[in-house]
Amino acid sequence: MTSTASPPIVLVSGDEELLVTRAVAQAIEAARAADPGADVREYEAGALSPGEVAEMVSPSLFGGRRLLVVRNGQDAKKDLAAALLAYAKNPDPDVTLVVTHPGAAKGKAFADGLRAAGATVVPAAKLKGQRERVSFVRDEIRRNGGKCTDDAAEALLAAVGNDLRELAAACSQLIADTDGRIGADTVARYYRGRAEVSGFTVADAAMVGDVPGALEALRWALHVGVDPVPIADALADGVRTVARVASAGRGNAYQLASSLGMPAWKIERAQRQSRGWSPEGLVDAMRAAAECNAEVKGGSDDRGYALERAIFAVAAARQGAGAGQRGSGAR
Amino acid sequence: MSPVFADLVGQDEAVDVLRHAAAAAAHIIDGSPGQGMTHAWIFTGPPGSGRSVAARAFAAALQCATGVGCGDCHGCHTTLTGTHADVRFVVPEGLSIGVGEMRALVLRAASAPSGGRWQVLVIEDADRLTEAAGNALLKAIEEPPPRTVFLLCTPSTHPDDISVTIRSRCRVIPLRQPPASAIASVLASRDGVSPDVAQWVASAAQGHVGRARRLARDPEARKRREAVLAVPRRLTGVGACFDAASALIEAAEAEAEAAVAETDATERAALETALGAGGTGRGAASAVRGAAGQLKDLERRQKSRATRAQRDSLDRALVDLAGFYRDVLTLKMRAPVAVVHADTEQLASAAAEKWTPESTLRRLEAVLACRDAIEANVKPRIAVEAMMLSLWRG
């Protein structure tokens, strides 16, 4: 009966709902695989009393595997946490205890105690950054028996958005629809459009003079329901950031960060964007941004058109002053 | 001159008309036919010329027992302090006067005067009437009750300020920008300001009586003005423009915050007490429940007031700045008029040597465009930044 396949204590640490659900489901599956008649019980930590724990983990008259899932471990009261930790020091090999914890400060002592008692930690933190999401998509497709290139994963992320559940569903749908080899063209056949476009996407493209890119991003942003006002604000913010960073001179982004009051990554990006801008051009661009701000707030009949014009004006301001001097830097 | 009209600085023609009308109004009450009184008046004039002062003084003269605005009788006194039962002042604190408020006021204005003279409704900043509120008021002005008088104050009779339908049913009293010498003499004689200080604050205030008084009395206001006038010298590059813009915005925010913080806290405390907060005993807790909505409503109104205070403060700064560029232009063209800011005359004449008249004019336009932009709800920071960059480039 005793199986070494599943660890006696599992701590699922993180707040990405999909990964938490998966980790719990996996533990249950493992228990069922070891013993089809395994007794699985799920509890909310906030509503569980220490007495119930004692009953759950004490040896059963009939034997058999048991699985105890305690959700929201951060809500465990002091006596419950003490009871579970005491049990964790001397676990029953026939019982698997799964505790989920969002990984934040609340109930941290409990999570750390479980870790110290030798719990197997399953990370389920929210994915940060594009790279992690790309690798999630690739892993997801690999898990389902397919193959996927990096650019296909990027394309899928752009089209579906950053919600992991939707991404997982999209991956399994793609596998079901195709032979399993997924390239960028496969994604393009089934998914079109951009799910997450903000004003900053528009502003970033406009500031480097990429008019087609900025217009495309603008159309998508308006299409998915971004209000024109934040887009106009982002445009002004883009000009302001570049102007302030450019006038601060060259320097280490981390040293400039405190004097400019901006995060270093923003400064680095603005330093890249500031190539090709002259002070004169920035004056024109800022004026265009201010006019655009008035227009999206009722000054113009068509707010989308006002934004489009502002993008053209920003690009023209960059070009008008930078013409013939490209490569030699600003001024 | 009748004492209630003494606060109107340099407006002799307007005062004559109003005194005549007040006398006529007194005749009407006596039962004899009076000429020169009507039921609706609009006071127009630049900011600081005393539109609301004129309206208030006229209201006092209407309620005056002697009919001339003596300033001493019960009617005059209570009107000037804002406690007369038949005089209602509408002073918008927020950005606009809504239709709900206006309907209630119109209803009230339709009642007969309890004091037996006139029912008076004074709307300061009638340019802040929303369209619907203006229409509600129009109904009352079109068919006025016999003893009701409407006094409206707006910057001008331009359709942007007051609808033409209201304008056409009112008598207009245009007030002019009081000359600096008149302001200076009032400050010196009535507020006890020394004559030389009175002279320069009067010219720096550009015809705004209240602003001149504030500059003469409040050292904080003088400091803020000096900071604003230092801006043109500080614009040495693109980065400096953004620093100057954010300093200006922050100063405006701080001034607005200081102006409203205390009232906000008192109002909130009063409302909470009225709703039963802090009470003890049975039912006290349930009384406060459901009060969140009302508190939120109060916060919304307070926010509108804070926004307005911030815009007003920014507008004062921009007017000062515009005055500086006007000085540069007058010095450049050797125009035979006095400079606005006597204390920065040297700076202005140095600038006049350096800049062409065209670029000075462009700068002046940039300041005025910024005022318009803020009026049009552009984010103040963005508008001011664009202006500063234009000022730097010229």
TrEMBL record, chain A:
Q: Which reaction is this enzyme known to catalyze? A: DNA(n) + a 2'-deoxyribonucleoside 5'-triphosphate = DNA(n+1) + diphosphate
Which EC numbers characterise this protein's activity in its record?
2.7.7.7
Q: Which UniProt keywords apply?
A: DNA replication, DNA-directed DNA polymerase, Nucleotidyltransferase, Transferase
The top EC class is transferase
Domain DNA polymerase III delta subunit-like C-terminal per the UniProt entry, residue ranges: 200-312
Kindly indicate whether the keyword Nucleotidyltransferase belongs to this entry: yes
Q: Which domain of life is it from?
A: Bacteria
Q: Belongs to which family? A: Belongs to the DNA polymerase HolA subunit family.
Q: What name has this protein been given in UniProt? A: DNA-directed DNA polymerase
Source species taxonomy: Bacteria, Bacillati, Actinomycetota, Actinomycetes, Micromonosporales
